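Most newcomers find our protein records easier to grasp once they have seen one. Sequence and backbone structure share a record, each on its own labelled line. To make this concrete, we reproduce a full record directly below:
***
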Amino acid sequence: MSNESYLESHKAKDYGAKYDHLYRPGSYERKIWCLESEIIKNKIIKNKKIKKYLDFACGTGRLISVLESLAQESIGIDVSSSMLEQARKKLTKSTLIEINVLEDDSMDELFEECDLITAFRFFLNAEPKLQTQAIKKLSQYLAQDGILIFNIHGNKYSSYYFYVLIHNLIKNAFYKLTNKRPKIFSFKKCLSITDIKKLINDSNANLYIQNIYTYGHIPRMISKFMPFSVWLAMERKLTMKWHVAGSHIIIVCVPEKSLYRK
């Protein structure tokens, strides 16, 4: 396996531009993002008043660019200058900071008492130690009535699991035959809702899972042949709280003592 860490993998000079290319018009990732943004804005945040919003591992600013107008103050943090360079092109009022808060607590006071924290496309590929550190740190930044929203873009209990299984078997055979060293993203990963619950419990983050949404029920290969409007209409109907079949998961957490706990 590669010794390169997840955080280091995003620091290449041109990584931000390459990452944005994943979300080019017509791509599956772009379709999924359109659905994700609807779920976040219309089903989760709704009319919640947001004074301070933190986007952890904000990357190229895809999420914070959509949500910054809903908050009085919005902050995006990432370890990659290349990713932040792309993010600046999308934002109008947010503050962007290059920092690894899992190792550097010098700015913790700035990030405390957040009404909303998001962390997208981080937890699936991050090493277990980073996952635990991140969920614990973000729980500390959350205001008492705040919400933490994060996603997993590979649900173990969905059809995506079989794609990952076949992909990894082929990759493993290739590296054994060629005697080459795998790169950090050579093998794909999946996590389940059970895995997420265990992560939260093991990290002692004092978080309560308020809601779970799964989406991406239509397999990627089939979606390629569907008009976007048809695909979106079907996915909207299939997206249900606590339904586990979708390839993607959004988890909504609140502090255990929150008045918003249901």
In short: Residues 8-255 form a domain with the Rossmann fold fold (CATH 3.40.50.150). The first strand starts at residue 50 and ends at 56. The chain has a mean pLDDT of 90. The chain has one domain: 8-255.
